[in-house]
Amino acid sequence: MKxxxxxxxxxxxxxHVVRLFVNxxxxxxxxxxxxxxxxxxxANLKDxxxxxxxxxxxxxxxxxxxxxxxxxxxxxDGVIHLAAESHVDRSIKxxxxxxxxxxLGTLSLLQAAKSHWNGNWENKLFYHISTDEVYGALExxxxxxxxxxxxxxxxxxxxxxxxxxxxxxxxxxxxxxPTIITNCSNNYGPYQFPEKLIPLFINNIRNRKPLPVYGKxxxxxxxxxxxxxxxxxxxxxxxxxxxxxxxxxxFNEWKNIDLINILIKTVDNLLGNPExxxxxxxxxxxxxxxxxxxxxxxxxxxxxxxxxxxxLQFEEGIERTVKWYLNNQxxxxxxxxxxxxxxxxxxxxxx
Length: 351
Ligand code: NAD
Ligand code: DAU
Fold this sequence. Notes:
With 351 residues, this protein is α/β, with parallel strands linked by helices. The chain has a domain at 3-191 and 224-251 and 294-314: Rossmann fold. Helix content is 44%, strand content 16%. The chain contains 12 helices and 12 strands. The strands form 3 sheets. Strands 3-2-1-4-5-6-10 form a 7-stranded parallel sheet, sandwiched between helices. α1 (12-24) links the parallel β1 and β2. The protein is globular and about 60 Å long. The protein binds nicotinamide-adenine-dinucleotide (NAD) and 2'deoxy-thymidine-5'-diphospho-alpha-D-glucose. Nicotinamide-adenine-dinucleotide binds next to α1, α4, β5 and β7.
């Protein structure tokens, strides 16, 4: 597979995957298909946008006609599908958009791939990026999510991702289209949209704004540095077994409030503030509706089969991440002011 379609490549994880593939595989054609919703930002890819093996297509995955044209135009043989609405809080307010993009959008891509490949499945792959949230929530001492854990999504976001996973499996089982699904834990690192916990809180500490902790801050998430996720995607895309599911995670669970205290300490330290300066910003607010208590991924299968393990210790990853946001204040300010959208909207109007 040399003509690769990466959807959602202007988003957080997608931009890391695009960068890795464009730099590592100069003989591949890498097509980034993205609608540029509020979460899509081409500034995330500034360093690689002029590479000769990189192409960008502004397109909605729900637009079956345009997606099919892109398959034909580049003779796509591999798909890495990341495009999605990804924020749980938004899904609680607006579930329809999540069903449309995550379910119907995935179906549109599957159908376009099936038509273009037309039964010739050799050296073809539809790789779907999913989440650990489809498994539901674990008790405090309730073990781990494994690949065979029953799907039990709670939020409209996780329900839409679970539904898209089922469509991917159905297209394999019904038509034979070669598929792989991976379910990953919470990612962190550069270029994450500052509505998610880690970049939001770094930005708020920097601007001396309140840090809204949902409930008692006792929920647990399992954090993985985004470049380790991108490395896993690369490995699985090239060496994973067809029709398999792989869990991706770093056995790195943190209670929200403990993670928040690490963020406060790291930001204060890097800004030269005395320890504890920003602790008073912690503000307990109403809990998220249906807030999942704990996620924890068992990625033993991926480790045993393909030899993947995370490369970065959490302390190092957090320090690297905080430094990145503090050194890229313009990137953050362009998002919070809305300038990133205006700039690219103008650019596409004039093309
Ligand atoms: P993100 O919100 O940062 O980026 C999503 C991207 O998809 C954006 O560039 C957006 O413009 C694009 N997009 C949205 N709707 C589209 C549409 N209709 N057509 C074309 N493009 C569209 O998301 P992310 O955090 O990078 O997550 C990427 C994928 O990984 C998602 O499928 C998500 O479910 C999954 N995932 C995320 C995490 C995480 O911690 N962030 C963990 C596990 C799995
Ligand atoms: O587990 C993988 C999932 O991780 C991905 O599939 C999702 O796309 C991604 O958004 C993420 O979901 P979470 O809901 O876990 O991430 P979020 O950053 O929104 O929240 C992390 C935890 O912090 C969660 O327990 C809610 C809490 N939180 C979040 C925000 C934004 C707060 O306490 N305050 C906040 O302001």
